[in-house]
Sequence to fold (955 residues):
Amino acid sequence: METTAVKKYTFRDFQSDQEVRWCPGCDDYVILRSMQKALPEMGVKKEDVVFISGIGCSSRFPYYMDTYGMHGIHGRAPGIASGVKLANPDLSVWIITGDGDAMAIGGNHFIHVLRRNIDLNIILFNNEIYGLTKGQFSPTSLVGQKTKSSPYGNTQPPFSPGELAIGAQARFFGRIGGNTPKEMADMFIEAEKFNGTSLIEVLQNCVIFNDGCFTQYTDKAVREDKQLFVEHGKPMIFGKEKNKGIVLNRLKLEVVTLGENGVSVDDILVHDAHEQDPTLHQMLVRLDYPLVTGIIRRFSDVTLEERENALTAEVKANSKFTKTDDLFFSGETYEVK
Amino acid sequence: MITNKIESQPEILEAVIIRFVGDSGDGMQLTGTQFSDTSAMFGNDIATFPNYPSEIRAPQGSLYGVSGFQVHIGSVEISTPGDNVDLLVAMNPAGLKTNLHSVKPGHTIIVDTDAFTKKNLEKAQYETNPLEDGSLGNYRVIEVAMTSMTKESLKNLDGLDNKSITRSKNMFALGMVYWMYNRSKDYTIDFFNKKFKSKPVVVEANTKVLNAGYYFAETLELIPNSYSISPAKMSKGIYRIIMGNTATAWGFLAAAEKSGLELFLGSYPITPATDILHELVKHKHFGVKAFQAEDEIAGISSAIGAAFAGDLAITTTSGPGLALKGEALGLAMMVELPLVVVNVQRGGPSTGLPTKTEQSDLLQAMYGRNGESPVIVIAASTPANCFNYAYHAAKLALEHMTPVILLTDGYIANGSAPWKIQSVSDMPEIKNNVVTEHHENWNPYDRDQETLARNWAIPGTPKLEHRIGGLEKDKVTGNVSYVPENHEYMVKVRSEKIKRVQNYIPELKTEFAEEGDLLVVGWGGTYGSLHTAVKQINEEGFKNIGFANFAYINPLPKNTEEVLRKFKKIVVCELNNGQFAKVLKINFNNIDIVQFNKIQGLPFGNNELIEKFKQLVK
Fold:
């Protein structure tokens, strides 16, 4: 994409004239604002940006962006977005989805879009509940969670979006709290830069049906102690005092305290997001103390478009067909006089 | 050797129907294709139909493992592969048993006697050998030890294993049939030379066996002299033999080139539609983007995305796949993007009869979506005109900004026929509704006043950023709208848009009679069977019977009612339980419509049609 000719935008350039209709206090507003602030920093032309969504609260997102957009049908945004990107690889294509949209009704598309590695960006609004249908358990709801469709407690074990995604060969996976707009916007910019499918899970609080579901990790008072924000090339240190770290003990990640039992910074794992082998990334994704946020995996790989383009170029170079007439009149034809 | 005495008199035939049957591995498809191609090159009109088991490698010799290929050739116009055959070539007992009922009484059967072993007879569930028990008394049976003679003719050839030698016995059969019908072997020998260029021994073996069969037939004094079928009177031009599915794929290639758009196919494999995917994936040189998705829904979703992004987008499927695509098709209708959905119909419901033909998805195509969701529905009627209807489906989608469902069926999709090659330069123009520049008061739902097509603003175009989606939209801005009157207006405008397509499609024409006692009505792939039957009955003197084939079903041609009212009675012939008859009854009151339905996974037979028509005018 040409970046030189891009005019300088502000976040206002990306606000549509539609009134935003999420519930007051919803983290969706944070995500929207972060996106509108991140886009001017990406060096893409406004007319080249496309948001595609499925169904759910999150999927209203495209209506609020003054870009191209399509509010699709439940679970199918990956298919629609794949078609947009394959039709015009110059576009910056974003999928907006939620935990139900992506992992329940759209589960099949979700894993396959990750497997293929088309240069798309997926923002997964995970609130561990169905919001728009008013409060049923979702594929990320916890066992025992009481919802409108599980009044005595949910009996279906949840997916961990990151674990599922990396299992489906996601090359880029990031996780971010819904109340940290600055880091979120930075992550959106990184997702756009990444050549391949990038997936960002936003821990998005639903104030109405699942309020406080991530508070134990995201509340300002505990955030630094409960979250490890990983950065490529940096040791995995967290805590208000910056004195906790992660070490690998046999096949488990373990939290240690710097300065205790002779542990020093040198013993702490250094985050390597670029590693192809997903083993450690999977372990980080599964950790519940601390909860790992930041870009956990960012492995550069060949994209589907690159493979397709190479094949097309090769076929074109070796083909004697340039017009359909060449094909239609080729081979076994005969004349009736 | 011969059970019935054959008169050796040369015969001049207008047309002949031949069926080659054998085990899945006996090469019957190749044999049949060679015979039909050779006949086409000679100038005959032809129609062919393959019939193979759905099992990929069915057990050898079994009844359900029989593979067949039917060829209908003539010096006259040939519209169908025909039903009952003049010549059956049966390479084993199972092939004989499953196809004997299709041989016209008194006509010829060639069998490979070497295959009539005790074991094979048991597999074919014959208690006694039909070649010995007199059960074939009504036929001219030519018994030939094809396997042994094939082996004999190759005994001096080194470098071939036993299996390869035995496998070339189909060429012995082909050689015999070439002699019987006075066909040249040259085309097939050329074919060997090209196909097995790197294996000269295979070329030599096949050529030897083909010649052996040919000369065997010539010297076998009890085989009648070769039949003569003159070239058909076909319009001048360059032809090729084409399968329906290939013609469909090529129609889209032509439409993409003519419209200047890139072709995008989002698809998921399903019988009998997959060959369109197979064909289009080959054509990367034309910039075709063929995307095999994870399922039917992703197939159409990707096509909708590609349409949004400015490609000529299509998706291909068969009945169950169309059911899965229903919701997304509703979205495409709602966002008013151009999209062609090809449904190569097969026997339903549910998984139904995947390898058999049927016309039972008509009402699904018309109504199989939630809400008021009209789309254009058209149907191709012959293998060759799949090209034209695919082209026109694309044209209508682009010019009217709507999904179009193109219905074909297993019968015409797998059948092949001569196609007078059409150059893109001779095809009608394809316009589109692309808007490239912003102007004051531009809105995404601005409509063409004539067609009511909305404009097509494609991502990447400055200042035309807009949002579309499945929610009801404001009639001007396209923004989400729950205003009651707006919803009613939008439902009606989407309906009116489809109705106005009537102004852009050909009027309905009848053949054989413009008015009279009976109008035979069909739609889509039954064209050949119905045309042939009405033609025959017309030649027998029934000048009061007309025939109309509907290619445009939603909307119907403008003059439909006028045409129907010129006949006292309408018989709607369909390979379903009366779906198009329902459509006509909904649209037109007080017309005497009777139904003739066949729901056996098979095309109409000529005799059953003629009998029915005669009964209706009695």
